[in-house]
From TrEMBL:
Protein name, per record: ROK family protein
Superkingdom of origin: Bacteria
First and last residue of the signal peptide: none
PANTHER family (alphabetical): BIFUNCTIONAL UDP-N-ACETYLGLUCOSAMINE 2-EPIMERASE_N-ACETYLMANNOSAMINE KINASE, ROK (REPRESSOR, ORF, KINASE) FAMILY
Ranges where the HTH iclR-type domain occurs: 26-60
SUPFAM superfamilies recorded: Actin-like ATPase domain (SSF53067), Winged helix' DNA-binding domain (SSF46785)
Family: Belongs to the ROK (NagC/XylR) family.
InterPro entries according to UniProt: ATPase_NBD, ROK, Tscrpt_reg_IclR_N, WH-like_DNA-bd_sf, WH_DNA-bd_sf
Amino acid sequence: MSETAPSTQLVRRINARAMLQAMRGAGVLTGTELMAATGLSRATVISICDELVRLGWLRELENQRGAGDYVKGRPARRFVFDDRSAHVLGIDIGAHKITAIVADMAGAARSQVTLPFRADNVPADERADVLDRIAAQALQDAEVDAGTVLAVSVGVAAPVGRDGDVLTAQEFWRSFDVRRIVAERHSWQVLLENDANLAALAERWRGAAQGIDHLVVMLAGDRLGSGVLESGRLLHGQHGGFGELGFLDHLDGVGDTHGIAHYVALWGREALDGGTKTSLRARCGGDGRRLTAEAVFAAAAEGDAVARGILDRVAHRMARVIGSLSTVVNPELVVIAGAVAESAGALIDAIERDLPEFTHTPPRVVASSLGEGIVSLGAVRHALDYVEENALDVYPASLGAAGPKLS
């Protein structure tokens, strides 16, 4: 039976993506080297290269004898991926700030900008204006024209369905249609994804989870959220709720989805209210309302017994959380990420000590080194994945002087 046109086109899309993945960041490659990297035949490699050159993804260099890819003295055809030909934007909409990263097609960040963001009681148009300002600033800092942006990925603290819509009854998201607003203002392709899912993509791409196929990444600051990869594939569930942790409300010893920073500060304040002798009092000027999680971590590092006890208590709670999730998901690695990650290293030994109490399959646990920009970095990876999957339809040559501009 002969191939149908749709199946032929699908194969070409898959092959084009494989070629771009092989060439990104690899420098100059010959046809023979691309055959080895992709497993494709010579005829397919040359055909796809010619198409990617036409679309603006690749540049063909002048023939050069002795390059190693020739027949009977014919010089090799040599290609290079033009990673500056187009760009993507990765944006993290947090509770109190927005972070945006502009990256080229090799995934290299050209700029990163963070602006404060008031989520509550602010009209949708004003929120959209903040998005405009941060996108404009990031593009200006990167010296990148808005017309070269092929995709924008936005991370949100809510479940996101397979169709890219936020699935929540929160008034904030009902009134703030991020995809529609950004797409209408700039004519960009806008993708939406859960923030913890994007953190998982970032961790596997650039963090401690490189090469790990069975992975959980937990954003664990004020709230707990998780992104789950199984066999290297991000899991969403029927309505985008895979990895949501609402069941913790009913888990003994946990009781809610508040995160590490929340309980470290809360239990520190409770210790002060109880009159306990501790250096924490001096760290907040005697006003428990000013005590931060960072101060408790710092006191523990300097040997304060009360602060150490708080961290041990938090670690035990996190062991319950990770143990319950691991019993269901069975990951090889759990990464604690987000704003608390820099301090969370102090909890790892105690978490791993207590984990066997709550699961028969305890994973390794590490703290992320990607910092607070992990979600926007994952958004970059998400946008790059989209562009690669649609390389024959979304490409640099389609842009230029007539492309979309910032208003």
